Amino acid sequence: MTIGQHLRVLICVIAMGCITGFVLNGTEIDTDSPYIDYIKVQKWPFKEDTSISEVFDTHYETTYWEYFTARAGQHVVQFTGTDAKQQFVFQFVVEEDYSSFSIGALKQNNILLRPEDKWTYVKSLTMKKTSKAEESFLSL
Fold first, then answer.
1. How far apart are CA 127 and CA 121, in angstroms?
2. Which of 15, 61, 78, 97 has the maximal Cβ count within 10 Å?
3. What is residue 26's predicted lDDT score, i.e. its pLDDT?
């Protein structure tokens, strides 16, 4: 194999390791947790009058919430939202005493977004999208 082929294999191995670490970073996944309840009612960044769950419910056709403790001991709430074309996975890191949280990793179609792309996407969700109920009503 050429040096270029070796480099491509190395890059693929590193990328797969990062993705595997991202996905398998937790232990004991829970879908009913006070940490999930805490995140759902928090205000969305850039849109202080709307909760996180309201933003997700308006933007995604299917939603799934889960909680796990990361190997480093962090409390992580993971949200997966899908629409017709894409899947997004958000990870929220919550302080043990529920005093604050931060948006950790964000994946789009299984690709980890860079921090600047993550914040661009988060900001784009502040735009009002017609809810599923409003879409049904408008289609009558």
1. 11
2. 78
3. 47
pLDDT of residue 27: 56
Among the listed residues 104, 131, 123, 126, the one whose alpha carbon sits nearest the alpha carbon of residue 115 = 104
Distances (CA, A) of 102 to 43, 44, 48, 85: 12, 11, 15, 27
Q: What are the DSSP calls for 108-130, one per residue?
A: ETTEEPPHHHHHHHHHHTTS---
Residue numbers of the chain with a pLDDT score lower than 50: 6, 10, 12-13, 18-20, 22-24, 26, 130-131, 133-140
**Which positions ≥6 away from 18 have C-beta within 8 Å?**
112
Give the pLDDT score at 21.
Answer: 52
CA–CA distances in Å: residue 108 to residues 35, 40, 87, 88: 23, 20, 6, 5
Number of H helices, E strands in the chain: 5, 8
Q: Quick one: pLDDT at residue 61?
A: 94
